[in-house]
Hints:
5 strands; RNaseH-like_sf; Nucleotidyltransferase, domain 5
Amino acid sequence: MVHTLEWKAHLLCEQGKGIQTCTKVKIDDLAILKKLHREFEAYKKSLLPKVPPFPNESISSHTSTEATSMRLAISSDNVKKRKSNNTIADTFNMKSRDHLDSEIARMFYKGGLPFNLARNPYYVSSYTYAVKSNLSSYKPPRYTKLRTTLLNKETENVDRLLQPVKATWKTNGVTIVSDGWSDPRRRPLINLMIASETGPMFMKAIDCSGEIKDKDFIATLLSEVIDEIGDQNVVQIITDNASNCKAAGELVEGRYHHIYWTPCVVHTFNLAMKSICAAKNVLNNVEVYDECHWITEVHVDALFIKNCIMNHSMRLSMFNKLSPLKLLCIVDTFFASIVCMLKRLKLLKTSLQSMVISENWSLYKDDRREQASLVREKILDEA
Length: 383
């Protein structure tokens, strides 16, 4: 086994130490190693206690030798004592760090917080700032302060950050964008956003619970936002193509003659896709039905296959073992939902075929054997 001193001589390229110098250490690395070695030696010397000389130390060489031996023994004992008391764990407060980690982890687990919160830059910066500031008596803000004082303060801060964006509205003009949706509590909300050359900006969300969202109600909401930001700054408004939104747009155009209503392009595209992919055999749609009714039939088969797999745990377990991708559960209101579902099934074609020809599928036993057989037939027919 190579001695520690020989390793040091090898890495520091010291000649005449009885060991070959390292040829892989570069000049820059060698300078860094020598600097670290000097700092370590200086640190070791600083740990040695200053032992006062014994009286009559110069009486004889024998007495001097004994005194030197005693000093070295005392120094050695003190160094060992200091080293035992100053371990790496104590130096870096490992116990305190582990305890703090556990407290933070319990906060996540107890509050049901998503682990993605740990990637939030403000999560990291808040603890870093607390450590650097050495706030020994600091207590984090309570529930009431978070939802009142600090929330109002942050709102004012966001308003200040948005001032450069608002300053361009008079020069370039803006577009008001409106859309409706439902939150997890099933409240009907209408979002109002501002789009400009410098970027989009959320304006507000209005709770329409108990309200009839007819043309007059929507036109009133749009007019209030127009007056709030200044009608001279507004170029157009954009909503979806629903009949009430279209009528509301016409009312706004009547009130403000320089403002135009524009239908949502994505919603228009979605309606066109629905007309093609969900063709109906009606008198005014005969040509479209003749050309596109096969898409509707494929969509029905795709829904049948998806539901048969997703609604049964054993079939879903077979599928998950064979496919790295998952089946999509897309609601009908999603833009081009039919196209998205068929595209995903095309990517899953090989996995689906492997599933229905596997031994587990052939040994499948339950009350729905006919349904499983029909799924197998439809998947293999597509091959």
